[in-house]
Structure formats: C-alpha cells, structure tokens
Amino acid sequence: MSRIVAIVGRPNVGKSRLFNRLTRSRISIVHDQPGVTRDVVSANVVEGAYTLLDTGGLGLKGGDSPVELTRASEKQVDFAIEAADLILFVVDGLEGFTALDAQIANRLRRGKKNVLLVVNKADFGDDKIDLGEAYRLGLGEPIRVSAEHGRGEGDLRDAIIGKLGPVPVPAAADAASASAAPSEQSAEITDEAALETDPDGNPLPAALPGRRNPDEPLCVCFIGRPNVGKSSLSNRLLGSDRLIVSDIAGTTRDAVEIPFVFQGRNGKDYPFRLIDTAGIKAQTKLASPVEYFSRLRSLDAISKCDVVFLVLDAVDGVTAQDKAIAGEAIKERKPIIVIVNKWDVVKDSFRKGLDPDCAPEEAIHDFKTEREYRAKYERAIRDRLFFTPGAPILFVSAMSGYEVDRMLNCAVQLNRNAEKKIPTAKLNALIQELAERVPAPAIGGKRFRVYYVVQTGVRPFRVKLFCNREDKLSEQYRRYLEAGMVKEFGLDGCPVYFDLVGKPKHTPGTPYTGKASMAEKRRLKNEESGTPKWKVREDREAQGLGEAFPYETLED
Q: CA within 20 to 30 Å of 287's CA: 336, 418, 448, 477, which one?
C-alpha cells in the first residue's frame, strides 16, 4: 500500500518551507520569489513512513518563469495529485483567502481525495486569521501552522498519521532495524567478512571500510553545465516525462531524487535512485540567490550518490566549466562516467555527408568515418580531463535514445569495481614494477621511495604507502602511480587515494641508529642530574633497589 502525501497550493504560500519542516531537511529551495519550485521534489518521512511531495505553485502569473515552464510545472502538480493518497492544501493565513484558493479547493473536492486544509504563517496568534473563510472552502477543520517557526507542527503530523492510518508492519520493522545498535551490525559484518578468502585460499581480514549495503538501491547523479540534457537523459531512463525539459537554460532548480527499477541484459532487476541536478554555473556567473542555492544543492547531491554521470554537450566539447565540475566529483572521490550527449547531431552530419561542427576547442582533424571521429573525440576528452582516473566515456543521445541503456550497465560495473579488494602481494609487485620502469624524480636531492603497500579501504579506493618521505611525492608521479593501478586492476573511473606514511625526520646532531640513540639519551639524562654514577650505585644498593646500570660498566 502506497503512502504518498502531496503539498499543493498557490505560489508563495510556504509549501517548500513546510516540506523542509516535515522532512527535517533542507531539500527544497526556499525563497520569497514566487515560482521557485518547478519539478516535484520527494523525500521520505520517517515518522509515519510516508513519502512527501513538494510541488510548484498553481496559477502562477508573471514572474521570471516563462509560460511554457509554468504549464509544465502545473502538469507536474497534476501528476502529484493523481499519485497522492493525501493532499495538504496550503493557504496563506496572513494574506487571507483568494479566488485562486477557492478554485484549487473546488478542484480538490471534485478529485475525491483526502485533503487536509493547512493555514500557514500563523505566527502571531489566531486573531489575525479569518477562519470563517477557511470553513467556506468545504475541506473540514483547518490546521493552523507556522512552517518557519514550527508552531502547530505536532498537530499536523498527528493529522497526517490519522488520515493515512497506522504505520504498516513491514515499514515499522525496517525502521526498527535501521535504529539497531551499530556495534551489533558491525559485529555481523565482521563475522561474515572473516569467512572470505583470497584466490590462494588464505583467509582475508575484516571487510574493508567504505563498502555500501548491497540491498540498498544504487544512487546515480547527473551533473553538468546548464542545458546539456541532464533532465532529458533522466526522463529517457525513467521512461516517462517525470522531469521538466526545456531549451531554456536553468529549467531545473532543485536536486530531484527519484527511485526506479532497471532491467539489465541478463533479465535481472536492479533498483536505482536517480538524482537530477540543476546546471552548475561558475560562482562568478551566479545572477540570483536562487541560482546560488541551486548550485549548493547540485554539489551536495554529488556527495550523496554512488556513481556520478558527468554530462557533456557534444557540440561544445569539454569547456573550462566542465573541467571544474569534474574536479568537484573528483574532490568528493566518487566514481565518474563521462556522458557525451547530443551525439545524434554528429551522426546526422555524417549521414548527410557533412563535417560535424562540434567541439571547436578539441581541434579534431584527419577523419573519414564516424568511428574515426569518435575515437579522436574520445582521445581529446581524455587529454582535457586528464585528472579523471580512466573514466569510461559513453556517446549517447537523449532525443533518439541512442546507447542510453549502456549508461546504467556501466554504472553497475563501475559500482562493482569501486569495491574490489586487491591482494597485497600483487599490489606491492605492481608498485615495485612501476618504480623500476619510471623512477620518481629527485626533489631536494632525494627520490620518493616506497617500501610497502597495503589496501585499507574502498569508496574511494584507499592505499597506504609506507615510504621514506611524504613530501617527496610529486603530483605528476602520484598520477603516474594512480594510472598504473587503474590500468592493471581494472579500476576505470574509480579514484585512488594514497595515505602516505613516511619515516620520522632525523633531528640534526643526533645519532641515526636506535642503539646509539638510546645510549645518547642515557648519557644526557645523567649529565642533567649532575650526580656521578658511583654515587647513584651506592645509593641504590643502600636502599636495596639493585644494580643501577646493569647494561653499562660503571666508572668509579
């Protein structure tokens, strides 16, 4: 049984703020400007085990939203109303009830849905709110709340549970398991991991930290510049027009998270969570607070996902902003897949016998077929995105559906690669071979040298290097070692993080060996005390404490 609650109302009555209050999060963007929310934003509410939907305002006129986007947003509201089991109709208690509120109330009554009338902005008592108008809407007893300050929140939560009914037994069991003691869960994981063995049959240590729960859906996130086709690709994967698509840059504002199931080529169903984000602009080009918060939501979505889809425009190629966005994904150490969208433009050019006018900055020359052009294009992308660890590159078209299914297949494979465990012996052999093939450059007269390597974690792939000096590892040589590991162990697209453990630095004027160092410490201690050794020996013998310096020959 579904438990879906949708928040609807006219623009700027506090729907998004109420959504954030009930979900105890900052998912939806809140601003005084009407028409900020466009897509349907969803989140799970633990207290009550239901899904809450935030929608755009109905009846928006004027503002900075074009007419076509307003119509598309209202279609999204229709979708939310049809899917909902309960509707929270929000009105503004300070401004009073308008003709548009009455129209929306009539529409909800005709739909025969369970409706709760929520009078928002009841911050300063009930004397300023005319509840008589609320009763005329014919939607039952109004609930007075303040989404900003939390007044009436408990009453609203109780009313929602009362309309939806008690929490289903499976949902309650899942909530109880989620709140189980971490120590018990970690003990179970350790016991299972202790049964794992390497290819030679030797038992492996406990599970590496960073592994995700295989029962949870795989979360993928689309990131990129505005108007490169992220929402179009998301709709193509979902098989429906769930997200608003327009040629106008900046159509998507919130980071919209949608669960779905994908059937692989083997016939097996794979659960996914898809996050469609707003286009990421450079900070210097943000024109409004809404764009600033959209950028924050997009960057926050990168940290939440398991695999990142970096979407490029085939016509523009790799721009400076694309490199900056890829750097954000690498900074979060997420597996990354490069998606070159709008490849149908290139195919149409070859079909018509024309040279594709794409990626002017890539300087692609000397090609005859579409296959040769694609190979040179891919090589140009790798040269520009040299800091991505062998990320897979897919050429797709959201409009025609060309090669779109490969995206999720590649995400599943990349997810497996991100949790590989490499035997320590093979890891050390590879690092030694790489060091012999290309020695590290000398920095300050000394070269970086690795003594021992061991894998310590996954997601990201963490490797601890015991070396001579941490500061002797240059960035170029670090990328050389990372590229060698990615190629040897099939870690394409998975970033590698090196934890360096160097020898302690030697203090000038002190002995190098441990034995000489200990003798030097004893000598300095005796000199500081100022007492002759023969005196110390006599005092200790008189007190019955035994020999004072059993490891030395005392001098009288």
A: 336
Strand-strand pairing, 4-8 and 50-54: parallel
- Distance CA(205)–CA(196), nearest Å, equals 8
What is the extent of the structural domain holding 538?
514-556
**N-to-C CA span, the chain:** 93
Domain total of the chain: 4
Q: Are residues 408 and 434 in the same domain?
A: no
Cα-to-chain-centroid distance, residue 309: 11
CATH at residue 443: 3.30.300.20
Single out the residue of 434, 437, 490 nearest to residue 465, CA to CA: 434
pLDDT in tens, 258-315: 998 887 777 778 899 999 999 999 888 888 888 888 899 999 999 989 999 999 999 8
CB neighbour list of residue 277: distance below 8 Å, 6 or more residues apart: 221, 222, 223, 230, 252, 255, 297, 298, 301
Q: Are 278 and 253 within 8 A, CB to CB?
A: yes
Same domain, yes or no, for 162 and 252? no
The Cα 311–Cα 440 span in angstroms is 35
* Phi, psi angles (nearest 5°) of residue 172: -65, -40
The amino acid at 433: E
For the chain, what is the total number of helices (H) and then of strands (E)?
17, 17
Instruction: Give the tokens for residue 468.
Output: 């001579």
Residue 439 CA to residue 425 CA, distance in Å, equals 20
As a whole number of angstroms, the distance between CA 530 and CA 540 comes to 16
User: How many angstroms separate the CA atoms of 520 and 414, rounded?
Assistant: 55
Residue labelled with tokens 């920095």: 443
How do residues 4-26 score in pLDDT, each as one tens digit?
Answer: 999 999 988 999 999 999 999 88
Q: Looking at this protein, which amino acid is placed at residue 531?
A: T
Q: 34-59 burial, b if ≥16 CB within 10 A, otherwise e?
A: bbbbbbbbbbebeebbbbbbbbbbbe
- Domain co-membership, 465 together with 531: no
